[in-house]
Specification:
With 324 residues, the protein is α/β, with parallel strands linked by helices. The longest helix has 22 residues.
Length: 324
């Protein structure tokens, strides 16, 4: 199966810029590090550990996850951009590192030029949630509450420039309310403080929020996307509630440094896509609100460019620009 996918991916990589070599036959012959640019917990960490497990089994090698948090993914992204392009340092890129941050702030890395897109894994919608103690059960009561408490409430995010930050700023502007931004080093600690009441609301990816929604600790108000999510059928979309352009996705994919040899990228892409075609894995990820989105490397590269353009337009329209 992997051999068949390798041939297809190799065709997709033709003209993509990398030159095949002999690495495919021997790669990997030592442990491979997958950087998760967040603290443990949340969708990025889940995807990193899932892919490390799957790639280890399919390629009969050791894949190790290393969490490198800080700067909304900037620290990890910069380190991977500067790593040797030999396939032994990879990263789970996501909408924050390769979508929203490049659109709203000046970075120490180029999300397009400094990386080799390898494989898209999947995506999940974002969900507006409140702490269970907040007296709001729907959008009307939520807006009534926040408008009566201007500047007194706060929301957590996975960091400056993350989708969890940008989406909430977009919503604040669209709905006309005020809340203080509390940036964290990853979605895990941001959720922890919302659970504890230090912050009152947030807009995490559904994959990260779902266990706490199921446990009754977070109350969902609305989800992004064009249709209601099958795991939260009673929760309306922002579009249903009259808010347009809330259809972004919290996506996750595998990247390496720029100039990664094509044969290594192809081999990794084939293994990722084979794992995503496994019905058992797809069902398990779907249960965590993560829908698989297999792509060839060139398709993933185009997806990243289009996502940056999308968020750049939104940031310009809403005058959102972050200063470090």
């Amino acid at each position: 199966m992997i051999r068949q996918v390798i041939l297809l991916a190799a065709a997709a990589l033709a003209g993509f810029g990398a030159v095949p070599g002999r690495a495919q036959q021997s790669y990997p012959n030592r442990p491979v590090k997958i950087i998760a640019p967040v603290q443990p917990g949340g969708g990025v960490d889940l995807v990193a550990r899932t892919m490390a497990d799957q790639l280890g089994k399919l390629l009969k090698a050791t894949f190790i996850v290393e969490n490198v948090a800080g700067g909304g993914g900037v620290i990890a992204s910069q380190s991977v951009a500067h790593a040797a392009p030999d396939g032994y340092t990879l990263m789970i890129a996501y909408v924050g590192t390769h979508g929203t941050s490049p659109a709203v702030r000046k970075l120490t890395y180029d999300a397009v030029q400094d990386f080799t897109p390898i494989a898209m894994v999947g995506g999940t919608p974002n969900v507006l949630v409140v702490n269970s103690s907040v007296p709001a059960t729907d959008m009307a009561s939520f807006l009534d509450y926040v408008r009566k408490n201007p500047g007194k409430l706060s929301y957590g995010s996975a960091g400056q420039g993350s989708l969890t930050h940008l989406a909430m700023e977009q919503f604040k502007s669209a709905a006309g309310f005020d809340a203080v931004h509390a940036a964290y080093r990853g979605i895990g600690p941001a959720i922890t403080d919302t659970l504890g009441g230090q912050t009152q609301m947030m807009m995490p990816g559904l994959a990260a929020a779902l266990p706490h929604i199921r446990g009754g600790m977070l109350r969902p108000i609305a989800v992004t996307g064009l249709t209601r999510h099958r795991l939260l059928p009673a929760v309306p979309t922002f579009k249903e509630l009259g808010y347009q352009d809330f259809d972004g996705v919290q996506w996750y994919g595998l990247v390496g440094p720029a100039r990664l040899p094509a044969d290594i990228a192809v081999k990794l892409n084939a293994a990722v896509n084979e794992s995503l075609n496994n019905p058992t894995l797809r069902e398990r990820l779907a249960g965590e609100a993560l829908e698989t989105m297999p792509m060839a490397p060139a398709q993933f590269a185009e997806f990243i460019r289009a996502d940056i353009a999308r968020w750049s337009r939104l940031a310009s329209e809403h005058n959102i620009k972050l200063e470090d």
